[in-house]
């Protein structure tokens, strides 16, 4: 239920305390995490040092190898910063600091002079910040500023209670004389901001997570008092399930051309579901611009590929994957069209071709597979001219049937273009041209048909019917 201190006041208090510590000859420790808040504080200190020439002889150290590596990101993506930083960048990069020095460890710090050290971790539980704190905590002229929340059980949380001494990592008790200040630069919202957010959303439920148990309970009670029965406030413990009720049914209003005919029981409708202000409308894509402020657009993609393979070789390779591959022309140029959606245009330029297609999830997938097939031909061109082997599929079917029913019970008849299968006193015949099964025994017929379908699915091209079904689901 806390309210954040205004930013200008908070920054003034922070720089004032740092100035106060170093002016009396002390060393100021600021425990921070490597990213986020640390860069914000570095900006504030560098700007403050620039405005106070009397501090130029006092160094600000930043001890974090990770933060040093990540500083390049901050220096590069200025366009993602706030307006103040972007305006400053027009003059100079604010993240190229003038008064801040990166160090590897405490041995790089002059222990006999006043200085400011920003080190991790932020809660003094271990690492360089803990080492420096234990080294400096016994001198009154030194100080530590905690700029963020500290978890219960950490040294940072403990020193906020102003103990007279602390226990070091080595188990030695030492007096605590340095100044301790808590100035929150939390990135979390305060009670006022959280309440405003809830007022805007008007949710039926609010679930509080990730926080100190006592503070969470205080926030929960304050929100319950504010919203009464209008909003249900939940504050579950770790691993405690939360049960939330939602309206099972949503009602959508059908408009436009979809509403031209009266509805019938069991009628399935397909269209775009548009939500605005918790109201739903179902409409045809062509009516989108009429009933909403949205509009539809189509994107045609074009990809140029290097390819030295003959056109016929490309066509045969594609026919091994897709059922519908045919010759056509596009802009008076020879082309192949795959599944009536992706065009392979032979542009006339030496050793190049172009892929053109209207972009959607299905066509993009087909185009990707075509690129892979052409690249495979380029990397591993066939040693002999590609041609369709008439009996290859037939032999694979025969081999699969032989594994199921035994080699002596499976015979291929080239004169009738069939495979005859015998099983005890029953028999089944596979028509290799029509890819169907005939048998007087229903059980045997179904079994052979299932095996045949699995073989054809495994080795044959993707059926156009399946591609159309995928396209319908995507739509």
Characterize the structure shown.
Helices cover 35% and strands 21% of the residues. By secondary structure, it is an alpha/beta fold. The chain has a 6-stranded parallel β-sheet, sandwiched between helices. Strands 14-18-17-16-15 form a 5-stranded antiparallel β-sheet. The longest helix has 19 residues, at 361-379. The two termini are 48 Å apart. The model has no long low-confidence stretch (mean pLDDT 85).
Give the structure's gist in a few sentences.
The protein is built from 14 helices and 22 strands.
Strand content: 15-25%
Overall morphology? elongated
* Sequence of strands across the biggest β-sheet: 3-2-4-1-5-8
What integer value in Å does the Rg equal?
37 Å
Mean of all residue-level pLDDT scores = 85
Keyphrases for this structure?
475 residues; five-stranded antiparallel beta sheet
Layout of helices and strands:
Blueprint: H1 7-23, E1 27-31, H2 37-51, E2 59-63, H3 65-76, H4 83-89, E3 100-102, E4 115-119, H5 127-136, E5 143-146, H6 155-159, E6 165-167, E7 173-175, E8 179-182, H7 191-201, E9 205-207, H8 213-227, E10 232-234, E11 252-254, E12 272-276, E13 279-283, H9 288-291, E14 300-306, H10 311-319, E15 325-330, E16 333-338, E17 342-345, E18 352-358, H11 361-379, H12 392-405, E19 410-413, E20 418-423, E21 426-431, E22 436-438, H13 442-459, H14 464-474
Parallel strand pairs: 1-4, 1-5, 2-3, 2-4, 5-8, 9-10, 11-13
Antiparallel strand pairs: 6-7, 12-13, 14-18, 15-16, 16-17, 17-18, 19-20, 20-21, 21-22
Helix pairs in contact: 12-13
């Amino acid at each position: 239920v806390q309210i954040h201190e205004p930013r200008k006041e908070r920054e003034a208090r922070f720089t004032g305390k740092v100035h106060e510590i170093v002016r009396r000859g002390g060393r100021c420790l600021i425990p921070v995490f490597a990213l986020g808040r640390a860069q914000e504080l570095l900006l504030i200190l560098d700007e403050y040092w620039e405005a106070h020439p009397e501090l130029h002889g006092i160094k600000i150290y930043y001890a974090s190898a990770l933060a040093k590596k990540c500083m390049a990101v901050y220096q590069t993506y200025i366009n993602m910063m706030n307006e103040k930083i972007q305006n400053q960048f027009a003059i100079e990069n604010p993240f190229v600091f003038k008064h801040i020095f990166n160090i590897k460890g405490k041995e790089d710090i002059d222990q006999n002079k006043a200085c400011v050290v920003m080190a991790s971790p932020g809660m003094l539980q271990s690492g360089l910040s803990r080492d420096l704190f234990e080294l400096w905590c016994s001198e009154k002229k030194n100080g530590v500023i905690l700029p963020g929340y500290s978890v219960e059980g950490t040294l940072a949380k403990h020193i906020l209670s102003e103990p007279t001494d602390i226990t070091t990592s080595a188990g030695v008790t030492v007096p605590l004389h340095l100044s301790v200040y808590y100035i929150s630069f939390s990135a979390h919202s305060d009670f006022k901001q959280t309440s405003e957010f809830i007022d805007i959303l008007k949710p039926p439920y609010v679930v509080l997570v990730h926080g100190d148990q006592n503070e969470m309970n205080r926030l929960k009670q304050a929100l319950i008092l504010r919203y009464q029965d209008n909003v249900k406030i939940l504050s579950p413990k770790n691993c405690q399930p939360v049960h939330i009720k939602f309206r099972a049914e949503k009602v959508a209003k059908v408009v436009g051309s979809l509403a031209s005919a009266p509805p019938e029981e069991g009628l399935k409708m397909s269209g775009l579901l548009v939500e605005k202000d918790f109201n739903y409308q179902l409409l045809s894509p062509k009516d989108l611009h009429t009933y909403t402020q949205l509009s539809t657009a189509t994107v045609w993609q074009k990809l140029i590929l290097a390819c030295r393979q003959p056109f016929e070789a490309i066509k045969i390779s594609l026919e091994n994957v897709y059922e519908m591959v045919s010759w056509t022309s596009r802009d008076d140029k020879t082309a192949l069209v795959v599944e009536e959606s992706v065009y392979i245009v032979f542009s006339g330029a030496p050793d190049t071709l172009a892929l053109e297609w209207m972009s959607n999830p299905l066509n993009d997938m087909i185009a990707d597979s075509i690129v892979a097939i052409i690249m495979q031909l380029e990397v591993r061109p066939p040693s002999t001219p590609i041609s369709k082997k008439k009996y290859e599929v037939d032999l694979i079917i025969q081999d699969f049937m032989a594994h199921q029913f035994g080699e002596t019970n499976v015979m291929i008849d080239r004169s009738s273009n069939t495979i005859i299968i015998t099983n005890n006193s029953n028999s089944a015949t596979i028509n290799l041209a029509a890819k169907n099964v005939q048998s007087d025994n229903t059980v045997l017929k179904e079994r052979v048909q299932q095996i045949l379908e699995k073989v054809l699915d495994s080795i044959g091209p993707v059926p156009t019917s399946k591609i159309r079904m995928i396209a319908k689901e995507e739509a």
